[in-house]
Amino acid sequence: MELDQKDLELVKMLQSDCKKTTKQYADALNLSKTAVYERIRRLERNGIVTQYVALVNKEKVNRNFTVLCHIRLVQHTKDNVLKFEREILKLDEVSECFHVGGDYDYILKINVEDMKSYREFMITKLTAINNIGNTQSSFVINEVKNSPTVHVA
Known about the structure:
Layout: H1 5-16, H2 22-29, H3 33-45, E1 65-73, H4 78-89, E2 94-99, E3 106-112, H5 115-126, E4 132-139
Antiparallel strand pairs: 1-3, 1-4, 2-3
């Protein structure tokens, strides 16, 4: 799907605040409400806009201890990789999981209450997954930038 300038501006606005009314977007884009409504539906139908979410303040819900955990698998067979990924999807503490190249196979972003909670998570959940060869954990000191938006030009 080809995006024109108005589509790009609309995507930026939706990423910034998706709770505005169609009229508010229309006024900002100098388009009719119907035109904006149709553009939003087209963006959704074409998989450009995939979902709308509320961003939660991790500190307010006591999940502001963030860990980046690097994982190396013992074996890289298709079955082992798929099984590992299925198991990771079940772990609520893992907010992001990336299959990467380099020294490690995966990087997980984990949000828990504190170091004690992370230790418990590691012992009872993460290392219970078969085929993990080793892990390396990095603890976030400060989030310099954390943006859920994708730059669309």
